[in-house]
Automatic annotation (TrEMBL):
Membrane topology label: Single-pass membrane protein
Domain of life: Bacteria
Location within or outside the cell: Membrane
Organism from which the protein derives: Nannocystis punicea
Source species taxonomy: Bacteria, Pseudomonadati, Myxococcota, Polyangia, Nannocystales
Protein name: AgmX/PglI C-terminal domain-containing protein
Keywords: Membrane, Transmembrane, Transmembrane helix
Main location: membrane
């Protein structure tokens, strides 16, 4: 199985008045990538050839906690259970506290069995 991750947030990520370096965001995502794989692997048990891309939009609040997390429209993964699992998983993550307030992030994941 191949999972590719790419940060699309600007350097540093900005919104809501705050900022956080994209490398800090990438470190946290990388530390939790097994959780994302678990969501995808569960989906593969139902659809062994499932592949596609989804993008998670989430907000990192001033204390580093994720205050909201949702999947962008246009996911090509086309599996509501996996999408929900990914969004719920991201909401549990803790990031370094952004400077100046909250930060909005869009983070794509690409999935392919293998």
């Amino acid at each position: 199985m191949l999972i590719t991750t790419i940060v699309t947030a600007a350097t540093p990520a900005r919104a809501g008045g705050g900022s956080l370096d994209k490398d800090e965001i990438r470190k946290v995502v990388k530390a939790h990538i097994q959780e994302i794989r678990a969501c995808y692997n569960e989906g593969l048990t139902r659809k062994p050839t499932m592949a596609g891309k989804l993008t998670v939009d989430f907000e990192i609040a001033g204390g580093g906690e994720v205050s909201s997390s949702e999947i962008q429209q246009g996911s090509t993964l086309a599996d509501a259970k996996v999408e929900s699992c990914v969004a719920t998983t991201v909401q549990t993550w803790k990031f370094p506290a952004p400077s100046g307030g909250s930060v909005q992030v869009s983070y794509p994941f690409e999935f392919a069995p293998g």
